[in-house]
Amino acid sequence: EIGGTMLAITGSMNIGFIANVNDMRMGRRRLIDIAKDRFPNPYNVDMFAFMPKNRQLMKLVRYENRMYMLYELESERGYKFMHPVYEYGRVTHFQLDFILRSTMNPCSLK
Predict the structure, then answer these.
(1) β-strand 15-19 against 47-51: which pairing, if any?
(2) 107 pLDDT above the threshold of 80
(3) Which pLDDT value is given to residue 2?
(4) Quick check: 89 and 60 in contact, CB under 8 A?
(5) Which residues are CB-neighbours of 88 under 8 A, at least 6 positions away?
(6) Per-residue pLDDT tens for 19-61?
(7) What angle do CA 6, 49, 24 make, to 5 degrees?
(8) Residue whose C-alpha is closest to residue 45's, from 30, 33, 35, 55
(9) Is the Cβ–Cβ distance between 61 and 53 less than 8 Å?
(10) Is this structure's pTM higher than 0.85?
(11) SS percent in the chain: helix, strand, coil, step 5
């Protein structure tokens, strides 16, 4: 089969957000280990979002149908993903959708 799994973000999802990841070269297994270290019960989370300090890359790890899926998103050169305000390591589907749809040009920020 050609293609991949489409990313669907719904309101019923519990999304864990992990910011300031230093090394984003790692794959899904290492990212899942980080999530297990940061969240007391990572199995209550449907998707984890990882963002480095420079906010130019975002990786999403989702568990569904006994499979882990890794999505990697990279902003264009000169742009960054917006950093959400979040509590207890969780973001809402509205916040994640907003982050994925909007980027900031660092040159325009003072």
Answers:
(1) parallel
(2) no
(3) 55
(4) no
(5) none
(6) 888 888 888 899 989 998 988 887 888 899 999 988 889 999 9
(7) 105
(8) 35
(9) no
(10) no
(11) 25, 30, 45
